[in-house]
Amino acid sequence: MTTIVHGSDLHFGKPHDPEAAEAFVEAVRGEDPALIVLSGDFTQRAKVREFEAAAAFLERLPPVPRVVTPGNHDVPLYRVIERILDPFRNYRAVFGEALDTVTRVPGVTAVALNTAAPRRAIVNGRIDRDQVAFARRHFAEAPGGDLRVLVAHHHLAPAPDYEGDSPLPGAREALDAFESMGVDMVLGGHLHRAYIGNSLDVYPGEDRDRGIVIVQSGTTTSRRGRARERAKCSFNVIRVGAGEIEIVHHMLFDEAGGFAPFSRHVYPRAPRRWFGREAGAVVGAGEGGRP
Fold first, then answer.
1. Is the pLDDT assigned to residue 285 strictly greater than 70?
2. How far is the CA of 267 from the CAs of 6, 214, 215, in angstroms?
3. CATH 3.40.50.2000 is right for the domain spanning 2-270
4. Which of 117, 161, 222, 284 is 20 to 30 Å apart from 86, CA to CA?
């Protein structure tokens, strides 16, 4: 069993909630994760001191591999010249030069794509062809049997509420491409409320038997939660077994004295398409993939 902790939207700066941050550190230490994923918006205004505070916070988390990716708040909004000429300068000073990355731990290959597009989109994001090619190349090199995880700040599927958020432009084409790469799960943030489901919930796609598990985290350490998570904080714990993926959504409750499980979601791992039998018994050898 491999455990992944997934948080997002820390928003160091004015919206940051230090009490939620302390609770998150305590919760993560109790999970013994093999991998920590933080899917963007580390800062509120991409200031040096905000990035330094975020970096100091990350050092308090367990010393395991981390996946990070920029969010739209991690590039300057009002410092227009900097946003045009060198928008990721402060992010790179803390997290390194690479904006698209691949991270491997036993049993998991995670590819993170930078969807922040400061010269084209202030709030929404973009994925370009070179990034799709980057993901395809590294997933093709993944060891057989690895869970294939795509990390992006901006969402590829809308949350099932009435907030009316538009997914990243080209989301359907991106989902088709990621399905063709065998991606099992997409982790993201940006919405400031959780959504855990399947890409088939919103788009039938080319592979209508499996789809991709979609895991959105709410804001983990800020006061900017939205919709049902208004003024709340949340993160996800993902447990990867041989035949299934379990996602436990945690929310911060004063009554619980910290983060506590709120909902649990379990999906069969490919090549399984349902629960109850061994993978070899449920996947046929024919082109249609039927027994």
1. no
2. 17, 11, 12
3. no
4. 222
